[in-house]
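We examine the record.
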Amino acid sequence: MGQFVIQYLPEEVTSLNNADDANNNEDVTVKDDDEFSVERNKTKMELYDWMQCFVSAIIFGILIFVFVGKTIGVEGESMLQTLHGHDRVIMSGLFYKPKAGDIIIFNPPTEAFGSTPLVKRVIALENQTIDIDFDKGEVFVDGKLIEKGDPRYVSEATTKRLNFTGPYTVPEGHVFVMGDNRNHSSDSRDSRIGAVDTRYILGKVLFLLVPGGDNENPREWRRIGFVS
């Protein structure tokens, strides 16, 4: 019996050792698979987070565009030198309340100008009285001189009367507007427009996004920026 024990015991021990080694190898293999699975899941989560941020940014941009700001093109020269023909600007009407000096975009009150929105500067608000001395080119609001060919806004002194008769008090719920290029603008001095009902106002011009230009007048990129 002792010989049999001496003869077979090493093989049994070897067999047991091999079995233990196999189990250890399986344990190592399972551990490697778990680590790989964790890394793969981590990568998926990171990609998901990036996709979520990207989609959120797009949705936020759309909401901003729809509810806060819209782009609109400017045609004509009535707002020189502030705005030029073919400029593209960003306009916002969210919670907007007109203030003197604002550049606004509004729907024309009559069919004389079609359905294309107009862009002008607010000169006087409701219940304010405006008067213009066309000989001197001076504009007064509530008896106070507000400008005299101010180069920041107007190209030249206001000498074009159109149908205006002053002094004129702006009705409730209306604003009095004029183009910065005063003598080449149809605005509240023109009876076809008159004082603008605030319900027709689409919004305030905030930012010059793309300067206009053509073959004769190249784009002036330095003009990009906030509009005042």
User: Anything to note?
Assistant: The two ends are 110 Å apart (CA to CA). The chain has two domains: 1-68, 71-226. Residues 126 and 172 are 5 Å apart (CA to CA). Residues 1-16, 26-31 have pLDDT under 50 and may be disordered.
